[in-house]
TrEMBL record:
InterPro entries: DUF4178. It comes from the Bacteria. It comes from Chitinibacter fontanus. This is DUF4178 domain-containing protein. Residues 56-198, 281-414 form the DUF4178 domain.
Length: 489
C-alpha cells in the first residue's frame, strides 16, 4: 500500500494496488497520477452518483476460486442511462472488472488485444464474433462517457473520457471488446472475458446495507435530492438512486435525475393520465420478499393498435428488478435473462434444455405512455422489435433495437395471484374493445332476438325439435367464449 498527500488539497490518498495508475481524492475529486518519482494532480473527475448498488470500495468476495477486493469505480453514462464498472484487485496481484448494470453483474478479466476484431462501427446486435473456436453473439454496443470516478484505477481517466465497448455472449459467458483506446499507435481493441454472476454467489462481504443505500442513494455530496418536477412542480414519486429517469405522471415531462439537478428532457403537453391496474408505489410480498412498483409503461404493437399491454417495473433493494406484464391474455412475471439461449431460429429457440416453438413472427412495438421511475431513459415513441417463443406456460422473448439484444423469460400468473400479492380485489386482464359486461349484455340481447324469431317457428312449425335444437345451439355459441373466459380466471 502506498500513501501520499493530494497535490491539490493535502488530504491523504491511498494506492492499495501496485498496478493502479491513478487514485481519486475522496475530498476534492482531484485525479492523482503516480509515476516513478512523483505524484501530480492531472485534473478533477466528477463525483459518482450514489445509486442503489450494494457494492462499495472495500467490498470483497470470491470469483473463480480467487479472492478479490473492490478498490475503485468509474461511472459511465450512455444515451439511455448509467452503469458502474468496479475495479477489483485479486490477492495474486492481478485485476479485473465487476460490471454493475440495473442489478445484473458481469465479471471480466483482461485477455490482451483482439487482433481479429472488426471495426467498432461495423458491429451490430446479433452479429457473430469468433473467439477461441466459439461463436459469440453481439448483445450490446455502447459509446459512453465517464461522468464520475472513485478510488483507484489502472489507467488515466477523467471527465470527457469516452468508453466504446461491445459485449458479446454465449450462454452465461461473454466477451467485452473495448475500443476506448484505439488509435494509430494502438490499432487493436482490448479483449476481456467473463461471465454473468449473482452477487450472492460471490460470497461478497462488506456490502452496503439497505439502510445505507436508502440514506445515500440519489445524492451527491453537498447537493439536495430533487423531488419536484421542474416543469409543473408536481411532486415526483421515485426511489432515490434507482431512478436515473423519471416520467412525471402529471405533465408527461421526462426528467433526468442522474446529475446534480433535474433536467426536463421532453414535455408531452397532451399526455393523458393512464389508468392502470397497478399504480406506482403499490407493494407486494412475492416469495417472502417485498417488491414495490416504481414505474409503468404502456406498449402498443405498431401494426395493430388493438394489441397493447402494460409493463410494470418492480424493485427490491437487495434483489434488484423484475417485471410484471398485464395483457389481454393474462398476467406474466418476467425476468431478464443473464444467460443466452443455446440456439434460436425463426421456428424454435432452445433454452436450458427446453425447446420453445415460435409463437409470433417479428413485430414492432412502441411506448405510448410511461409514468414513474426507471433505471434507463424511456421516451414516448421508443420502439423495439420483438420475437416470441412458447413452451407450456412459459414464453421466451427476444427484444432488439439498434444498440442491444435482450432475452427475457415470462411465466403466466393467474389473476388471483396478483390479487393476493398486492392485496387487491377484482383484478382482471386488460379490457378488449367491448367491456365484459357489455359483451355479456350483447350476448343475452342476441339470444332473446333468436328466441323471439325461432320460438314461434318451433311451436307452430312443422319440426318443433329442430327449431328448439338450433335456437339452443345459437345461444350456446354466443355465450361459450364468455363462460370459458370466466372459468380460465
Amino acid at each position: 500500500m502506498f500513501r501520499t498527500a493530494c497535490p491539490s488539497c493535502g488530504a491523504e490518498v491511498l494506492f492499495r494496488s501496485t498496478i493502479s495508475a491513478i487514485a481519486v481524492c475522496e475530498y476534492c475529486q482531484s485525479t492523482v497520477l503516480r509515476s516513478a518519482d512523483e505524484v501530480k494532480d492531472i485534473g478533477k473527475i466528477g463525483k459518482v452518483l450514489e445509486d442503489y448498488s450494494p457494492i462499495q470500495i472495500g467490498t470483497s468476495g470470491l470469483f473463480a476460486g480467487r479472492t478479490f477486493t473492490v478498490i475503485g469505480r468509474i461511472q459511465l453514462r450512455y444515451d439511455a442511462g448509467l452503469w458502474n464498472e468496479w475495479y477489483v484487485s485479486f490477492d495474486d496481484g492481478k485485476y479485473g472488472w465487476l460490471g454493475d448494470t440495473s442489478g445484473q453483474y458481469m465479471f471480466t478479466l483482461p485477455l490482451g488485444e483482439a487482433a481479429n476484431a472488426p471495426q467498432f462501427e461495423y458491429l451490430t446486435p446479433e452479429m457473430r464474433y469468433e473467439h477461441g473456436g466459439r461463436a459469440y453473439v453481439v448483445t450490446d454496443k455502447r459509446s459512453a462517457q465517464c461522468v464520475g470516478g472513485q478510488g483507484e484505477l489502472p489507467f488515466v481517466v477523467g471527465n470527457g473520457y469516452v468508453a466504446k465497448v461491445v459485449d458479446c455472449r454465449i450462454a452465461e459467458r461473454f466477451l467485452t471488446i473495448d475500443y476506448s483506446d484505439v488509435n494509430a499507435a494502438r490499432p487493436n481493441p482490448q479483449l476481456y472475458v467473463g461471465e454473468a454472476v449473482e452477487l450472492k454467489n460471490l460470497q461478497a462481504q462488506l456490502l452496503r446495507s439497505d439502510e445505507e443505500i436508502q440514506r445515500s442513494a440519489g445524492r451527491l455530496k453537498g447537493t439536495p435530492n430533487v423531488l419536484d418536477c421542474p416543469s409543473c412542480g408536481n411532486q415526483l414519486q421515485y426511489r432515490a438512486g434507482v431512478a436515473t429517469q423519471i416520467v412525471c405522471a402529471a405533465c408527461g415531462s421526462e426528467v433526468d435525475c442522474s446529475g446534480d439537478k433535474a433536467l426536463v428532457l421532453t414535455k408531452h403537453t397532451e399526455a393523458e393520465r393512464y389508468h392502470a391496474t397497478l399504480d406506482c408505489g403499490d407493494s407486494a410480498m412475492i416469495d417472502g420478499t417485498k417488491w414495490t412498483v416504481i414505474g409503468l409503461i404502456e406498449m402498443v404493437e405498431t401494426d395493430d393498435e388493438d394489441s397493447h399491454w402494460t409493463e410494470y417495473l418492480l424493485h427490491n433493494w437487495q434483489q434488484g428488478f423484475q417485471w410484471l406484464v398485464e395483457a389481454k391474455d393474462g398476467w406474466s412475471r418476467v425476468a431478464v435473462l443473464n444467460a443466452m439461449p443455446e440456439s434460436w431460429s425463426d421456428a424454435h429457440a432452445n433454452f436450458q434444455g427446453q425447446r420453445f416453438r415460435k409463437m409470433y413472427d417479428s413485430y414492432t412495438a412502441k411506448v405510448v405512455y410511461a409514468a414513474g421511475a426507471f433505471n434507463w431513459r424511456v421516451s414516448v415513441g421508443d420502439r423495439v422489435q420483438l420475437w416470441e417463443y412458447q413452451q407450456g406456460q412459459q414464453r421466451l422473448c427476444k427484444e432488439k433495437n439498434s444498440a442491444e439484444l435482450v432475452w427475457s423469460l415470462a411465466s403466466k400468473i393467474p389473476n388471483r395471484q396478483i390479487e393476493q400479492w398486492f392485496n387487491k380485489t377484482n383484478v382482471q386482464t386488460l379490457k378488449s374493445d367491448a367491456e365484459p359486461g357489455d359483451q355479456r349484455s350483447m350476448a343475452w340481447r342476441y339470444t332473446l332476438i333468436l328466441l323471439a324469431i325461432n320460438l314461434p317457428l318451433a311451436l307452430f312449425g312443422d319440426d318443433v325439435l329442430e327449431g328448439v335444437f338450433w335456437t339452443g345451439m345459437a345461444a350456446y355459441v354466443l355465450h361459450w367464449p364468455l363462460n370459458k373466459s370466466e372459468s380460465d380466471e
